[in-house]
Amino acid sequence: MKKITLIIGVIFMCFAAKAEYNKDIMIEPVLKTDTTSIGQKIIFPNFTNNEVTICKITIPKAASTGWHKHETPVFAYVLKGNLTIELENGKKMRFPENSSFAEVINTFHNGVNQGNEDVILIAFFLENKGERLSIPRNNLITTK
Hints:
Blueprint: H1 2-19, E1 50-59, E2 68-69, E3 74-80, E4 83-87, E5 92-95, E6 100-102, E7 109-113, E8 119-128, E9 135-136
Antiparallel strand pairs: 1-8, 2-9, 3-6, 3-8, 4-5, 4-7
């Protein structure tokens, strides 16, 4: 029942947003969530110097991002290809083209391209200006 209520709410919001634009504008929600892809509650940080960074990230075939973590919310949209996210506990999550997800927070993970074409992501980072977007596993020193 909760899922149906959520779907109805998203549809209503899209219709409401549509009313705010020209009738020819198409609005399609790609993600609405209050948890990360592993169920962690998303909590927006209370930064003193807010900044948003949007990156286009290309992962060539057979390549990976390397093990890293994010200390703040990150949201991604898979523009092209199929992305596999590996977690340290062995769990793997797959995100196909045209899907979106909220990245895990303070959890080391590795983005892997197991396909035959580049994976292209658009990632949205919420951050405190001047801090790193991610922390590599082999470098645990943060700038905070």
